[in-house]
Amino acid sequence: MNDSHPLAYRYFPGIDRFVVGDDPTALLDVDPTALTHYKSVEYYRYLPLPGISLERVSVDLSRRSRELCCEITTRCSLECCVCFASATPADAIDLSVADFLRAVALSRSSLMRLTFTGGEPTLSPHFARFLLEARRHGVPYVLSTAGAPPTLVDRYLMHHPPSAVYVSLHGLQTTHDGFTRRVGSFKKAVQLCKALVAAGIPVHILTTCAEEVARDLVPLSHFLRGLRIEEHRLNLIKNRGRLDSSPADPDAVLSLALSMRSNLRTTVKSADQPFQMLLASGVLEARHGR
Ligand code: SF4
Question: Considering only CA atoms, which of 141, 186, 147 is closest in space to residue 165?
Answer without folding.
Answer: 141
